[in-house]
Write a structure and sequence with these properties.
Two copies of one chain form a homodimer.
Chain A lengths: L4 E11 L7 H6 L4 E5 L4 H4 L2 H8 L4 E5 L8 H15 L3 E6 L1 H13 L6 H5 L11 E5 L11 E6 L4 E6 L7 E4 L9 H19 L6 H23 L4 H14 L14 H13 L3 H16 L5 H12 L6 H17 L16 H11 L13 H11 L1
Parallel strand pairs in A: 1-8, 2-3, 2-4, 4-5, 5-8
Antiparallel strand pairs in A: 6-7
């Protein structure tokens, strides 16, 4: 039976070449005191930093640069929250990819809380308020620009948490596909793998509405086709535009309303991996995907492979044996876009696999019995070993 | 090239059986003085009126019943705005189908305006504020529960206007598929035809993103399959649920972001028809659909028929001749779900066809040269004559 659901996404998307010109009117809705957040400096290389500074001459801008991939609670979130409090910030302007956006969302709530911010991120305390956040996206991947989630790592605890809260929806997301022209082949591939995984996580659920199956297949097809175009021709506007837009849709929930609980098991596993080893999220997911699929393949899950096989690869699936061909096709696809498909290539060996399995079961309830397929400790270890 | 777009839908969907229980907490966000609006009384027949009154014991409720199909500016909108002003209404609770919702959206803005409300609906004056609106949907059709449009008829002017304004998004839409179990076969079919048409209007555009093509095809497939189940078994929860959800998606814009201007030509024609003859909107659209398709079929539009033919009917389209088979298949589909496919069956003859064509060109700019296919007066007359 179709599941009950609650759905809302109040974020406004402003999409197109040159739409950055709307930034001053957007920020003016919230005030003049802006915390500008960004990552390692690519926004300076592509001229975006200067353009924004020039557009925002009438604003008072404070800055937090250097936000890390797999953004860290300490120092980034802590420092950002301090800057907001000390400078009475009206609005946070996050310019970058998912890491910068996620970090800024966490800053937005921590800045409005007097206690230890990690209590909010880890779910111990419920946030009551957040500073408004606006973003300018430079990487098509996580979908953070169109959702209310933020994934934050706490290095001291080897913990990586997905924090979900309606308070942290961006108010506006400014999406200009030309900002992604200079994204490296590797990051383009990893971003696409991330978005594909967002779709696949929710595709593997029961029930899955027919309309959702069709929309999710369509998103996957689009990602798989357009990433190849973008890898071949990095400044192909239409390919970059469709990648950017589909990445936004992929993590938003709109493709899976009414579906059963899926539990995001591949993300649970990957969050442990990147908490322990700080690897690129999309690469980790691509490596996990075929191994997780092999683990959960059964008569119960077969119908999911039937649809994916037919629609994505033209593979007819009549039984479990056939489904292995679909799994292999995913493996080859990820390999074909340049993702290393073994953890060993990322310098990860089996030393901490059991520790990671324990970590997943301790911190993540998303692989439990209420989900599409339950994963126990042995299953998690099997998957991680196969990933090596 | 992918078109620039702005997209936002702040409406929250609360979906499932029994979700009406959340109504008091939802309305409490806005205040205690409620204008309850509804149509011809079906909400009393299914017990929903009593249930709402019982749930809202702690609220002060004022009522506007008897809202017409193709809701009228005068008396319904005028009367509703007067009630809001005189009683200092905090929130409008619309319970019904698209007509009740549209009328309530118009009331929401007119109640906050001191001049003649029609000036706002007709676009002469820009609204500055609106009373918050919450709805409980009882008919899967128009998608008004998830968009910011309202179609209002002004009988005195033979005018039917589509009013679009971000101010009139519902705050919350409460969607319980069981409320649609008692919808008649005819209204179930017409509601589905309406939603199908919303998808088809935007499907016929250039460019159309591949991801959008896939999502739109998926929506059409779902509507066409589930309407048959619901006609056969009116209390099939899953079929009613998927119809309700897809109707909400169909008019929301989320299926066609980045697509070229389509102009909603079939709606422009139908709005003239129902302004002159007060027919059921979905029936008018079903009648117009194949005739409009015949009119615009050409080498330029062929690729749209290729996709629809293959995905919906298994018809291979290689040329314009083949595309006629797709058009015939749509005709037969609508006929098969019980929609009268000739205007004569709705007691409409050719007397006012020229007048309607003039009306469309005067009031609707959606068939002009900037659109996917331009329709001039002769084309409009041809389409309407074919509909007889």
């Amino acid at each position: 039976m179709v599941k009950d659901f609650f759905y809302v996404t109040p974020t406004a998307l402003i999409f197109g070449k040159g739409v950055i010109k709307h930034l001053p009117e957007v920020l003016n809705k919230y005030g003049k005191r802006v915390l500008l957040t960004y990552g390692g400096g690519s926004i300076k290389k592509i001229g975006l930093y200067d353009e924004i500074k020039s557009l925002l001459k009438d604003f008072e801008i404070f800055e937090l640069g250097g936000i890390e991939p797999n953004p860290k609670y300490d120092p980034s979130v802590v420092e950002g929250a301090r800057l907001c409090k000390e400078n009475n910030i009206d609005v946070i302007l996050a310019v970058g990819g998912g890491s910068t956006l996620d970090c800024s969302k966490a800053i937005a709530v921590c800045a409005k809380y007097d206690g230890e911010g990690w209590d909010i991120i880890s779910g111990k305390v419920k946030a009551k308020d957040a500073i408004p956040m606006v973003d300018v996206l430079t990487l098509a991947a996580t979908g953070s620009e169109f959702d209310c989630g933020a994934v934050i790592s706490n290095t001291a605890l080897n913990d990586k948490r997905g924090y979900v809260d309606g308070l942290i929806f961006p108010k506006f997301s400014i999406l200009d596909p030309t900002y992604t022209f200079s994204v490296s082949k590797y990051q383009t591939a990893c971003g696409t793998a991330d978005a594909m995984n967002h779709v696949l996580e929710t595709f593997f659920s029961s029930p899955s509405l027919e309309v959702n199956d069709g929309m999710m297949v369509s998103a996957l097809k689009s990602l798989m086709k357009n990433v190849k175009v973008a890898l071949d021709k990095p400044d192909d506007y239409d390919a970059r535009a469709e990648l950017m837009y589909v990445c936004s849709l992929a993590c938003n929930g709109i493709l899976s309303n009414g579906n059963g609980e899926c539990g995001w098991p591949m993300h649970s596993i990957e969050h442990a991996l990147s908490a322990f080893y700080d690897i690129t999220h999309g690469a980790g997911l691509a490596i996990i995907t075929p191994r997780w699929m092999k683990e959960i393949l059964s008569e119960k899950t077969l119908n999911r492979f039937v649809v994916l096989g037919k629609e994505l690869f033209g593979i007819e699936v009549n039984n479990v044996e056939d489904a292995n061909n679909v799994i292999d096709a995913f493996y080859k696809f990820f390999e074909g876009i340049g993702i290393p498909m073994h953890l060993k290539e990322l310098n990860i060996n089996e030393d901490r696999i059991k520790e990671m399995a324990d970590h997943i079961l301790e911190f993540d309830c998303t692989v439990g019995p209420q989900m599409y397929v339950e994963l126990n400790k042995e299953a998690l270890i099997r998957i991680l070993k196969e990933c090596l």
